[in-house]
Amino acid sequence: MGLKEDLRYQFIEEARTRKILHSTLISESAENYARTLFGLKDYRKEGHGPDAIDTTFIPPIHYEIKENKLSIVIKDTQLHYQYDTFRSYLIAVKRVDKITSYKKHKHRKILKTINEEDSLLFDFGDIFVMPFEILRMHYILQRARQLGKKHVHDIGEGKKYKDLRNMHRVMRYRSEEELKQLEKRILNGESISHNEINLVTLTFSQAAQIIIQYGPEAYALRSMFKHKKLYQWKVINGPLILSTTLRSKIFLMDQDYKVIDDLVSRLNVPVDGLTRVQEMDDVKKERLKFYDIIRELQSKDFLWHIDKHPKLKSKLEDLVKWQYSQPFQGDLFTQYSKEDSEPPF
User: Fold this and answer.
1) Confidence of residue 301 (pLDDT cuts 50, 70, 90)
2) Sheet holding 88-95: strands in order across?
């Protein structure tokens, strides 16, 4: 390769590495947030395995955790979980912070570097918990809509499909069969290439409609699948949304109340005087205070860097993980007085 090709390859690799680190920083914060809030374990090995496991149930319950600002992406290769002997659920976490992922550069957007200090401002709002079988139904419906867009010209008298409903019915059947064949390949240990993976989106608005069983998306699922199961659901208050007086909402859905009630009790039953929601409220408040402390120190000394202060850096790393001390003694959140010349950690 010549010099130009070498530089081009270097830039591509740099961009790829930055994108991986960038998305990892955000997604790991969301995963830690959900695991900490619901008291779930992380048993992944080298990044492989479910995002979270609840070992209080036998067999353990598996959770897949996804985050985004408007919607999450569902891959068809993730929907085979329901064939395991484990109960599997999705936890969809909505990002509500104002941190932007990209910045303008001439006529295009480039990925913005987010450091650990800025990641203190990551904030998550509503959370949606639903079983994978519901997610699978949503996937089939959305995939059928994708396939249907390619066949709208085949609708009409003397054509392949007599009307829109007939075409949708055929596309749903095709989508379901397509998914079954893919699941068989996965269960047989066959590798699936990136080009074969199909994606659909689940917006948080759709997730809310599906869980409370009201609205266009809930109606579409009922009319398409006519399932006889009567799903149970609850909506409860979650932690505060950073820098506001508003509370997030936690939407839960399942075949019965067994798992729902267990998760709700973990969130709302006080331990040593505080519930998990109250603990997370304190974490969020302290993250914001700590961010202000760092910015104040940086404004006083242009060359100031957190690496020069090991105790501050250690505190930052703990707060970035959305974790709280056990038991909740406040040692992770030592208060900083502005009268002090240096933070007393």
Assistant:
1) confident
2) 52-54, 61-68, 88-95, 124-131, 247-254, 232-240
Share of the chain above pLDDT 90, in %: 33
Helix locations, the chain, DSSP H: 3-38, 116-119, 132-149, 164-187, 204-212, 216-225, 258-268, 276-300, 310-320
Amino acid at 101: S
β-strand partners of 233: 253
Please state the pTM of the whole predicted model. 0.83
Cα 262 to Cα 249: distance, rounded to the nearest angstrom = 17
DSSP 162: S
Is the CA virtual torsion 74, 78, 83, 86 positive or negative? negative
Sequence ranges of the domains in the chain: 46-95+126-269, 273-345
| pLDDT tens profile 109-151 | 766 677 778 888 889 999 999 999 999 999 999 998 888 777 7
Tally the residues of the chain.
Answer: 345
Taking only the tens place, the pLDDT of each residue in 303-318 is: 888 888 888 888 887 7
pLDDT score at 81 = 60
Distance CA 319, CA 334 (A): 12
Round to whole Å and give the CA distance between 62 and 167. Answer: 36
In DSSP terms, 75 is beta-bridged to 199
Cβ atoms < 10 Å from Cβ of 292: 13
Radius of gyration of the chain (CA): 23
Mean pLDDT to the nearest integer, 27-40:
88
121-159 b/e (C-beta count within 10 Å ≥ 16 → b): ebbbbbbbbbbbbbbbbbbbbbbbeebbeebeeebeeee
Among candidates 201, 255, 260, which has minimal Cα distance to 231? 255
Res 219 pLDDT > 60: yes
Cα separation, 312 vs 308, whole angstroms: 9
Mean pLDDT of the region 100-106:
70
Q: Contact, 110 vs 85, CB < 8 A?
A: no
Report DSSP state, residue 339. T
Alpha carbons 342 and 324: distance in angstroms, whole number:
23
